[in-house]
Amino acid sequence: MEALMAGFVAGSAMGLLVNGLFSVSVVQHPGLLSSFRDRFPEGTALPLLTAAMAMALQAAWGGVGLGIGGVYWGIQSNAQDGLGSPAWGFTLFFVVAALLVLTTAVMIQPSWWRKGLLFSASFAATFGWLLPNLAEA
């Protein structure tokens, strides 16, 4: 059960980071928000839309964290220490997944490398190290 709680905490931490990255992207590219706003009825308040997006992102990442926590709960009894984590294979999976996401993002848009690096490093650290260490604490 601790693994599920650790997963939710890790997912919520990622949700905070993604909300921050999303907010910066909206400020840098105002057309992004206006194209999103066009999908809603005329007169919908902008603060209402942004609050709804922030809550939806946070809830979605909490759900992702619960799912990953459930996976960790399933492998927890067979996990081996290594790489600074109670489950080195689990950690290695998330490091490799983060590197693949970073490589894909940079190949699609080379100017995204800073945001991609921040997201990938945070993703690997949050789900690869934080989640197993919280679950075992």
Explain what this protein looks like in three dimensions.
- With 137 residues, the chain is mainly alpha-helical.
- It has one domain.
- 80% of the residues lie in helices and 0% in strands.
- It has five helices and no strands.
- Helix 1 (2-28) packs antiparallel against helix 3 and helix 1 (2-28) packs antiparallel against helix 5 (113-136).
- The chain is flat and about 55 Å long.
- The mean pLDDT is 86.
Any idea what the radius of gyration is?
A: 17 Å
Give the strand tally: 0
- The end-to-end distance, rounded to whole angstroms, is 12 Å
Give the oligomeric state. Answer: single chain
Q: Helices and strands, in N-to-C order? A: HHHHH
Output mean pLDDT. Answer: 86
Number of discrete domains: 1
> Stretches where pLDDT falls below 50 for ≥5 residues?
none
Summarize this structure briefly:
The chain has 137 residues and is mostly helical. It has helices at residues 2-28, 30-37, 46-75, 88-108, 113-136.
Blueprint of the fold:
Layout (H helix, E strand, L loop, with lengths): L1 H27 L1 H8 L8 H30 L12 H21 L4 H24 L1
